[in-house]
Amino acid sequence: MAPETSRREFLALSGAALAAASLGAYQSSPSRLYAYVGRRTKGPGFGVGGGGGVTVFSVNMTDGSLTEVSQTGPEHDDLNCDGMCISADARFLYAVIQTPSFGRPGGGGGISAFAIDRENGSLRHLNTLPSMGANPVGVIIDKTNARVLVANHGAVAFVSTVTKRNGVPVVDTVTDDATIALFPVKPDGSLEPASDVHVFARRPPTESGRAAAAHQVIFDRTQRWAIASDNGYDHLYVYPFNPGSRTLEGKAFATPPGKAPRHFALHPRAPYFFITNEREASVSSFHFDSNTGEVRAVQTSATIPQGYSGPNVSPSNIQIHPNGKFIYAANRGDNSVAIFAIDEGSGRMSPVSTVTCGGRGPREMNFEPSGRYFYVCNQQSSDVTTFVADGNTGLLTQGPKVEVAQAGVIHFAVL
C-alpha cells in the first residue's frame, strides 16, 4: 500500500499540476506571427482602378513562407497602400491612401485606421480621414500609440498663377504642397482630425529643379524627434516630439542637390540613420544628435557596381537588420538588393553583395522581428519574395514566393 500523502505534499503536487496545465495551455497557444501586405491599385493614376487594400498572411517560421488568411473587403479596393505602420502593442494598423483626389478632385489623400483581431490577425476598419496633402506615402506611430505622423508627397498637380515682379506680370507654375500631418490617436485606435500640418518650403520660382516632395517620416531612437525626407527639394526636416505634441515646428537641413533623399533606416543602437537617394543610385549615412536634433552627413556609397551599364537604377526602400550590422537597399531598374556592412562606431558603410530581388520593381521590404527572414515586395511582378538572412554575413538566400497583386509594403505583428 502506498504511503499516505501529507497535506503539504498534496498541495505541492496540486500546484505543480496546475502549473503544468497552465504551461500546456500556453504552449498550445503560442504567439503567432502575421504579415500585412499593402496592395497598390491597378490605375491608371493613383488610387483608382481597384485592387488595393491589405492582405493578411500567417508566417511559417520554418521556411519563412506566407499563407493568406484574410484581406480587407471590396470597400477598400481603392486603398492605394504605399505606406503602413503597426502600433507597438500590435492592436492597430494604419495605412495611407495614396491619391490626389480623396473624396473629391484635388482633395488630397487619406489615412485609414484598422483594429487587429488578436485571434486571427484580421482587420476591422475604424475610420478614415483626409491625410492633409496629396499622395501620402509614409506613416509612423509613436511607441506610446498616442500620435500618428503622415508624409504627404505632393508635387503632382501643376497650377499656373500670375504674380507681378517689379510691376511686370509673370506666370509661375506651382505644385501642391508637400506636408507632414500630425494625428492624435483615440483610445480605441481611431484617429482624430489632424491637429497640425507642416508644409515643406517651396523651391523659389527663380530656381530650377523639382518641387518639394515629402516621402517618409520616422522617429529617432529616443522618440524625442521626428525626421522627414524631402526628395524633391533635397532637404531633411527634424521636429521636436513628445506623445502629447499637437504641433509640428521643423528645422530644415539641406542635402546635396539632385540626390533626392527618399527612405530611412534607423540604427537600433548607434546615433546614425541611412537613406536611399532616389535619383543617384546611392545610399547615404548621417549622424544624428538626439540631444540637439542636429544632422551631419557621414558617407554616400553607390548601390550599383562601378562601370554599371544596365537600365537606369532608382533606389526605393532601405532596411536595417535587427542586429544593426547590415543595411539593404532596393534597386528599381536592375531589380536587385544592395547589401552593406555597417561600422557601428563611425556610421560608415562597406559593400557586401548584391542579389536579385526575386521579381520586378522592388518597392518596400522588411525583416520579420527575429531577423531570420527578409521580405521584398515586387510591385511590377506582383509578388512578395522571402529571403533567408544570415545575421553574421548579411547575405540573403532566396526562399518561397507568394503572389500579391501590386505588392507595395509589408509589416509584421506578433499576436
Describe this structure in words.
5% of the residues lie in helices and 47% in strands. It has 415 residues and is mainly beta. The N and C termini lie far apart (50 Å). A hairpin with a 2-residue loop joins strand 10 and strand 11. The strands form eight sheets. Strands 3-2-1-30 form a four-stranded antiparallel beta sheet, with no helix packed on it. Residues 1-29 have low confidence and may be disordered. The chain is built from one helix and 30 strands. It is globular and about 70 Å long. It has one helix at residues 7-28, and strands at 33-39, 53-59, 66-71, 84-86, 92-97, 110-116, 123-130, 136-141, 147-152, 158-165, 168-175, 179-184, 196-199, 214-219, 225-230, 235-240, 251-254, 261-266, 272-277, 282-288, 295-302, 314-320, 326-332, 336-342, 349-356, 362-367, 373-378, 383-389, 396-403, 407-414.
